Amino acid sequence: MTDYDPRITELYDTDNPDGPDHDYYRALAAETQAERILDLGCGTGLLTVTLVGERRTVVGVDPSTVMLSYARRRPEAGRVTWIDGDSSAIDGGPFDLMVMTGNVAQHIPGQQWERTLKQLREAARPGTVLAFESRNPSTRAWEKWDAEESTTRQTPFGPLTEWFDADESSPGVVRLLSYAKFEQSQEVVVEKLELAFRSAEQISRDLSAAGFEVRAIWGDWTREPFNGEQPLMIFEAEAAKGKTGETAHG
Fold first, then answer.
1. Pairwise CA distance, residues 39 & 131, whole Å
2. Which phi and psi angles does 76 have, rounded to 5°?
3. Residue (of 174, 188, 101, 182) closest to 144 by Cα position
4. Which residues contact 205 (CB under 8 A, 6 or more apart)?
5. In this structure, are residues 73 and 46 in contact, taking their beta carbons and an 8 Å threshold?
6. What is the SS3 assignment for 149?
7. Which of 169, 230, 225, 172 has its CA nearest to residue 198?
């Protein structure tokens, strides 16, 4: 993958602050009494470091060297095991709780998604909870992104102008171009993404095929049940009995 511009990474936490989503995942960690937590796609580690607790170990995995470099500089970062890579690099299991936050699931395409779920199952024991969110494709969020006008804001790097181009390149796959123009230098940074918009039914099938049982699909961070109309789908699944994490390391 092409890594993130370090300046964009420096702004990431401002654009994606701690909020109700992180509160939900922290509450889930407490409810499950998790002692070993995996944060796959941990990014800058804003949530990851707050999951650490007494008698609780946390592993953060991300394929972005730039993001992990930022995460490793956080206060309390030394209490987290940071791993460069994707799901194939998972180590330290089996885990009691596994999370993928910030719509990470949508950044994992096609067969890589199937592989990721299987590798997560290998890092789990029966009853381990897997939780993550994904945007509801029926609300077609990318159309709003594409229609938005450019905006300019002040940053530590001077004025920054941002805009998006988005279109559904094939059913369920959205091509997103994110533009960031640093006005002082006139440099334009372009981030190219392909996002997978999967239905609740498809994700449920994929989880089942990988050895997970869906126990809830929420429509918001207050755990209102998903009714098909909310823009977000929050999945809670459990590793099913009969398949164990023998291949997990640790």
1. 10
2. 75, 5
3. 174
4. none
5. no
6. coil
7. 172
Residue type present at position 114: E
E strand or H helix at 99? strand 95-100
| Secondary structure E strands in the chain | 36-40, 57-62, 80-84, 95-100, 124-135, 151-155, 158-170, 173-182, 187-196, 212-218, 232-239
φ/ψ bin of 75: left (φ > 0), alpha (ψ from -120 to 50), beta (otherwise):
beta
The pLDDT of residue 246: 40
Tokens of 249: 């390391």
Residue-level pLDDT at 248? 38
Residues in the chain: 250
Neighbours of 31 (CB within 10 A): 10
Q: What is the rounded CA–CA span in Å between residue 44 and residue 30? A: 22
pTM: 0.94
Using only C-alpha atoms, what is the Rg of the chain? 18
Could you tell me the sign of the dihedral formed by the alpha carbons of 14, 8, 75, 221, in that order?
positive
| Residue 69, burial from CB neighbour count under 10 angstroms (0-12, 13-18, 19+) | middle
Walking along the chain (250 residues) 10 residues at a time, the average pLDDT comes out as 89 96 98 97 98 95 97 96 98 96 97 98 98 98 97 98 98 98 98 97 98 98 98 98 49
How far is the C-alpha of 188 from the C-alpha of 193, rounded, in Å?
16
Q: What is the pLDDT of residue 1?
A: 57
Cβ-based burial of 38 (10 A; exposed 0-12, middle 13-18, buried ≥19): buried
